Amino acid sequence: MPVPKDNRPLRSPNEKGRYRRAWKESHGNLLLAFAGLIFLIGLAMIWASPPGTPEIDVDLGTVDSADQVVSLPPNVILIRVATSQLNSEGPIRIAVYDSPHTFGNPEQAIIKDSLVPIDGFVVWEIKLDFLPEQFAIAAYHDLDDNGELNRALFNAPVEPYGFSNNARSLVGPPTYEQTIMQRPTESTAIEIRVY
After folding, report:
1. 36 and 68 housed in the same domain
2. Beta strands 92-97 and 134-141, pairing class
3. CA 127/CA 24 separation, integer angstroms
4. Which of 130, 142, 131, 186 is nearest to 164 (CA)?
5. CA 155/CA 148 separation, integer angstroms
6. What is this structure's pTM?
7. Is residue 54 part of a domain?
8. Which of 151, 162, 143 is nearest to 91 (CA)?
9. Which Pfam families does this chain map to (predicted)?
10. What is the rounded distance in angstroms from the CA atom of residue 111 to the CA atom of residue 182?
11. How far is Cα of residue 63 from the mean position of the Cα atoms in its chain?
């Protein structure tokens, strides 16, 4: 067998395809695709997980002059939306939907409003009589105050958003069924975190 100038033996024709055969025999392409899938699932889980900021616990009841918590106003629901973007002056926008057909279309929401957060949250007070038996809430923090939820690659939102029941989905927004709430029979308070 001839020896090249750098003293390495030449590969025989049978050895040239050895690595290619080993890759095929061990299902290398399948293993590589599986590793890529695991990587993408991990990225999606990181993207969908809430930020690690501590949650601010604020009582939704009102406080009288003796610093005692007073009960909620009669026949209302208080919707508190908390954000982690404390330095943003953009408003938090909310929409309340009464059917799966209108869900996700703010123009068809039965209630839509916006408030500028103070100390990282806003609170809406809505009369229970105004709400349908079942409803869903969507909210987002409009950081640049342009009136729409900004999106990036693959239509992923880049501004903090959240839904009733704090519902999340790995791919796309949660469904109406995941966010649906029953109208309470007495005054209550709920919290939605946008992140």
Report:
1. no
2. antiparallel
3. 66
4. 131
5. 13
6. 0.69
7. no
8. 143
9. DUF2141
10. 16
11. 32
